[in-house]
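So, read this over?
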Amino acid sequence: MAHVYFDHNATTPPDERVVAAMLPFFREHYGNASSRHEFGTSARKAVEHAREQVAALIGVEPSQVVFTSGGTEANNLFIKGTAGYLRPGQIAVSAIEHPCVAKPAQELTRTGWKLRKLGVDCDGRLDLDDVDAAFKERAGIVSVMLANNETGIVQDIAAVAEKAHAAGAVMHTDAVQALGKIAVDFKALNVDALTLSAHKIYGPKGVGALVHDKRTSLRPLLAGGGHERGLRSGTENVPAIVGFGAACELAVSRVRDFTSRIAEMRDMLERGLDDRGAVLFSKNARRVPNTSYFAFPGVDGETLVIELDKAGYAVASGAACSSTSTEPSATLLAMGVAPEIARGAVRVSLGHGNTLEQIDAFLRTLDFVLLKLKRLTAIAV
């Protein structure tokens, strides 16, 4: 039996139309986009067209888009790049940020910055009272993700940005998990910068972007030939950038699919999980339509993921970037979930190739797997 893929928050399969758009830039149009001859100018035109496609999806000018190697680099470019132009002060991030925001924020403490983690409630929503308390001290940098990679919860970024700007801070959001699932509008979010990644929207791995207000000063992470208006030196990955642009263009229609068909599948899944006694995390909060994060008390999450994989279903036990860790999810712990429950966490993240029939079959398989694990536990006891 072919595996069913339920791990789209980790990565998505590249769309065939994206691959088709990329192929000529591996073969015929292989020039360096900085070269002045025909091969180079052809590559440059393709890069700038892709920049326009990315910009159009979120409502910005193309000149605001800086291509990077992915979301991690873009987040680091914002945090370290902004800090490079400011005197050390307070950097505030949510307690449920992805490691590629949390870790560079922590690194700033070595150079005199004070790290403030903003609390969340039991559903993972940012505690706006805690935000107010944090911003009583003048904030220099604030970063809060738009949609969480584990729970799928969507934060009120515009409200946080208003408070951040009132405190004199530069505001950033990691929108990697939101793009293509909900509408992402740079101006409506009221941020100074946001991060995107291609491989979460059926594009290629290895390319992303930092989108920024041109009044925001950034010190580049990489010194070199001055590519990307001096903000990201290095020969452009033209095929990947072209694929990113194509994926952004396709994402316009996909958002509608997420709000209807995929949301219907997620709701069907969660009704089945609830009937089987699962703990559903963030179920009372606004989430992206494709994500369910749950646990069965007394069942180890890693073990459940392995058994489901054997049965033909690819799911996750948390964030893919942290899959080597045996510790309970830091996101769930920040939400006040007990460690013994957090260790059982399993994430299902749906995509455009999934069907209601697959959900029904998954729930029936889950019954079999849970019964097997309970029998093994009973034998062990």
